[in-house]
Amino acid sequence: MGGRWVKQLFRLQCMIVCHRRRFIFFHNPKCAGTALREALAPWHDDPFEFRGVQPAPYFLNQLDHAHLRLWEMQVLFPHIVEAARSYRSVVIVRNPYRRFISAVDEHFKMFQPRVPLQAMSPAERVETIETLIERGLTVARITTNYRFIHFSPQLWFVRIGEQQIPTNVVAMDDHGQFVAEVVNCLGVPVKEVQHANRSRSDLTHVLTSPKIAAFVRQFYAMDFWYLASDPALRHLTRPIT
Asked: pTM of the entire structure?
């Protein structure tokens, strides 16, 4: 793994908890969390800084504490889940197709930098991602190996069982208008939020692969169901071309 990206992984703090102003920003990976974290960071006042890969003895593995799933948070930081019952809170969700290809780009950038995804032809990219799906993207690996955290279903950052933890769920758009909605939900003044950690190139074309498109539909079926059940989020279920 490239040293530059290792340093970035340990530097990122994506969940922001402010007890003084009683708000929580829950982070769903690949949903503009890096940009919002920069804007909201001055308000974080929880003793724990949610960043970096650290040992988690209870789970017998290492966890990326910048991207904790809610069941992990409930075990390791129950006071945060309890606070969410009365604090203002928000999480951002995204079209599962767009989020998947963004996660692919992030995975190769951070954990397989020697794979020249950006230099490949469209056909080579499709083949590489199909191979990743066949050999690497299993529930077991995604739940136990922090290197695959970005492929977690979005529902893992929204619900514990049938209980929704963040009070507000905001749809990510392509124009940045969702940022104002997030800030309004949290009730804090922030300066302009710049889009950070952009994908290096447009990988939309890989969704023309029946194997890749079918994987997204099947693996994230519960995400599609959740988004489709809410009129305000339903538009996020549309296929992209």
From this structure: 0.89
